[in-house]
Design the sequence.
């Protein structure tokens, strides 16, 4: 048992004591970077693709990744150390790193006493692209919780840089993060994958599920609701698969990936064409592998448009969700055909026109000012390199 584990043992029954421990006693390691993805979910999203390039260019950097063991035993590549995000060790790693990279806010750690030191940098990548649903301070329901408001403001003050992929997202960040932190429009690292040849990626995915090489994949990736129920996800999968075969031909399977906040499990036993991938930590790899996608309000669909493949909206509760969460723009102003029930979804698939869809995608990306071009990871690494070479003013 090392000294950090001993300290953790002493105070783990009073985690609020984190705020009384003088973490600023530890010197800052000028080559250390601490990453996190969705508050400890695993190795994925924008941080993953930044870290991948850093591992190649700078093996001398010390990379630490914060994980929550309750979410699973995630595998990490060689050269990346893991630390339990709820542990004293995580606070030590954060306090002694020069740079933090995260795709999520640090509200929960701030409530435990996390503070950023003057000579540290916090790079916020966030986890959405051109997303329709409101986030952070723009969500009225969150603003009614005083403890969240206070911690959220502290989080916004900590952020030195916010990485955006569009003019639209610049404006979202200004309001959602209370106009704190410098916004850099450099693109989203996780979207670089759509500008690469993903044949091998799809082959790998199909092989993992013993599917034939000519199999087509539809990914259904809905977001969560406040009640965390599965009732709203009522797609008729048999009709859906038949509609896909009739419209596009070939053999189709359906991958279902529920939001990380949903703890309920799907019952897909004995199905030869339905697969539950809710525990898969990198949705970007799935998006890059699939031939079509369906969501309701998840921002991942606005990443998927970069692949220029068919995508649809299935959202039975548009008005209710808009009232509870709020939209930045109308769901009908997206490139996607919108269905509120199964009959409408099947009609939309039948009537899908790829040429019209691609024109809508082009107009949408232009209107939002999207700059993703496959080089976002490179630009993010250049930012980190520059920060490593200088002292904070």
Sequence:
């Amino acid at each position: 048992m090392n000294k950090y584990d001993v300290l953790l043992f002493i105070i783990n029954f009073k985690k609020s004591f984190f705020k009384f421990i003088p973490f600023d006693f530890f010197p800052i390691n000028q080559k250390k970077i601490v990453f996190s993805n969705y508050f400890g979910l695993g190795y994925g999203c924008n941080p993953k693709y930044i870290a991948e390039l850093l591992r190649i260019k700078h093996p001398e950097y010390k990379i630490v990744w914060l994980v929550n063991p309750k979410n699973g035993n995630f595998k990490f590549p060689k050269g990346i150390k893991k630390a339990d995000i709820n542990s004293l060790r995580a606070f030590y790693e954060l306090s002694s790193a020069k740079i933090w990279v995260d795709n999520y806010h640090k509200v929960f750690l701030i409530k435990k006493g996390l503070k950023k030191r003057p000579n540290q940098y916090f790079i916020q990548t966030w986890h959405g692209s051109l997303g329709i649903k409101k986030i952070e301070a723009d969500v009225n329901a969150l603003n009614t919780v005083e403890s969240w408001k206070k911690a959220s403001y502290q989080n916004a003050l900590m952020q030195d840089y916010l990485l955006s992929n569009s003019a639209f997202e610049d404006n979202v960040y200004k309001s959602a993060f209370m106009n704190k932190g410098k916004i850099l429009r450099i693109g989203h690292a996780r979207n670089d994958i759509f500008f690469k040849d993903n044949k091998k990626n799809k082959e790998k995915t199909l092989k993992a599920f013993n599917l034939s090489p000519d199999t087509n994949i539809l990914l259904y990736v809905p977001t969560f609701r406040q009640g965390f129920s599965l009732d709203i996800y009522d797609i008729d999968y048999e009709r859906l698969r038949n509609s896909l075969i009739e419209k596009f031909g070939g053999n189709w399977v359906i991958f279902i990936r529920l939001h990380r906040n949903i703890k309920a499990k799907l019952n897909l036993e004995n199905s030869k064409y339905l697969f539950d991938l809710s525990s898969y930590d990198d949705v970007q790899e799935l998006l890059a592998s699939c031939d079509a996608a369906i969501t309701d309000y998840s921002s991942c669909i606005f990443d998927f448009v970069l692949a220029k493949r068919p995508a649809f909206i299935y959202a039975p509760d548009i008005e209710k969700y808009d009232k509870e969460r709020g939209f930045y723009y109308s769901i009908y102003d997206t490139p996607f055909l919108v269905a509120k029930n199964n009959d409408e979804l099947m009609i939309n698939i039948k009537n899908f026109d790829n040429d019209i869809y691609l024109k809508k995608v082009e107009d949408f990306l232009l209107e939002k000012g999207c700059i993703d071009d496959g080089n976002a990871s490179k630009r993010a690494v250049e930012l980190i390199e520059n920060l490593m070479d200088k002292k904070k003013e």
About this structure: The chain is about 35% helix and 15% strand. The chain has a mean pLDDT of 90. The two ends are 39 Å apart (CA to CA).
